[in-house]
Design goal:
The structure holds 2 protein chains of 2 kinds. Chain A is an alpha/beta fold. Chain A is built from 5 helices and 11 strands, in the order βαββαβαββββαβββα. Chain A has one domain (about 5-225): Rossmann fold (3-Layer(aba) Sandwich), CATH 3.40.50. Chain A has helices at about 15-25, 70-80, 90-95, 150-160, 210-225; strands at about 5-10, 30-35, 45-50, 85, 100-105, 110-120, 135-145, 145-150, 165-170, 180-185, 190. In chain A, the strands form 2 sheets. Chain A has a 9-stranded mixed β-sheet, sandwiched between helices. In chain A, strands 5-8 form a two-stranded antiparallel ribbon. By secondary structure, chain B is α+β, with helices and mostly antiparallel strands. Chain B has a 3-stranded antiparallel β-sheet, with helices on one face. The chains are: A alpha/beta, B alpha+beta.
Chain lengths: ~230, ~90
């Protein structure tokens, strides 16, 4: 049966409808979940979409991590269910401590809206399990704070544990290690700055986001079976 | 026991040493164009003014330090200092 995925909506989220449509295209059932909800019961996985949660006040994700739904997101993550943060959602997951590192202002202080190439660096995450490492994908990016930052020991551990999920071919924002996406130790929690949900049809300029979301949906289906 | 009073507290948040500060670097590059020569090591940050009810200045500083660590700063990339002003 198709897995059921929750898509979290904060005040200021703006990609949630695109994410729902793309997840359904990838074979899931997807429903919006308000940030004030405390339960994610009945969901096999969850996506934190892009936008400007709580206006990005203080720092992107700094307020969102205290929203009531985030405790349930953390519980789901610790239970091994697939959790995906896209763009602002990635920032929220790092602020919540579910993923290492932080997203800083882009090198050059420019908001970047572009389609870029990324290489699948690890196939062990819920997002990339269905893809061959080395595969190059064309994905849209749309961010001001996408400059992935972590200390040297964290970077060494991410590389050692094969947790760098996606790398930019031509680093657009100054990210440490050209990192575009990372996962947690178990591989079920993934964050990335590019928007796979905006690359699901050739008509949109690229359909390279679809295999990522299909992989995430498949991981959610198998998590549902084992849960 | 002293009565609780209200303390004015300044919390300053800035990037940890070694973390790139594109905003500070851009400001530093702009300064010579305005005639400000000889200014180096510009680091940007944020400042917060709080009024904290606490039994003592030390207690106000401790509470402000906790909230700075938990919310105002992201300890992955930032550090904070607390000053009790009055």
């Amino acid at each position: 049966m198709a897995p059921r995925l929750g898509v979290v909506v904060f005040p200021g989220s703006n990609c949630e409808h695109d994410v729902v449509a793309a997840l359904e295209q990838a074979g899931a059932r997807a429903d919006l979940v308000w940030h004030g909800d405390r339960s994610l019961a009945g969901f096999d996985g969850v996506v934190v979409p892009g936008g400007f949660a709580h206006g990005d006040y203080l720092r992107p994700g700094a307020i969102a991590r205290f929203s009531p739904v985030m405790a349930a997101v953390g519980d789901l993550a610790r239970a091994g269910a697939p959790v995906l943060g896209i763009c602002n959602g990635f920032q929220v997951l790092t602020e919540a401590g579910l993923l290492p590192g932080a997203l800083q202002k882009n090198r050059g202080l420019r908001f970047i809206c572009d389609t870029v190439e990324v290489t699948v660096s690890s196939g062990r995450s819920a997002l990339t399990r269905g893809l061959e490492p080395g595969t190059v994908l064309r994905l849209p990016i749309n961010h001001f704070e996408g400059n992935y930052t972590c200390d040297d020991s964290t970077l060494a551990r991410l590389v050692e544990e094969d947790r760098v999920v996606l790398r930019y071919v031509d680093n657009p924002n100054g990210s440490t290690g050209d990192i575009a996406g990372v996962c947690n130790e178990a591989g079920n929690v993934v964050g990335l700055m590019p928007h796979p949900e905006r690359a699901t049809e050739e008509l949109l300029g690229s359909a390279d986001g679809l295999p990522l979301l299909e992989s995430f949906v498949a991981a959610s289906a198998s998590a549902a079976v084992t849960a | 026991m002293s009565e609780p009073s209200t303390y004015s507290v300044l919390v300053e948040v800035r990037l940890r040493p070694g973390i790139a500060d594109p905003q500070g670097a851009t400001i530093e590059r702009a300064l010579p164009a305005l005639g400000f020569e000889g200014v180096r090591s510009v680091r940007s940050g944020k400042a917060f003014r709080l009024e904290v009810d606490a039994p003592s200045a030390d207690d106000a500083a401790r509470r402000a330090g906790e909230l700075a660590h938990r919310l105002l700063a992201n300890p992955v990339i930032e550090e904070s200092t607390v000053t009790v002003l009055a």
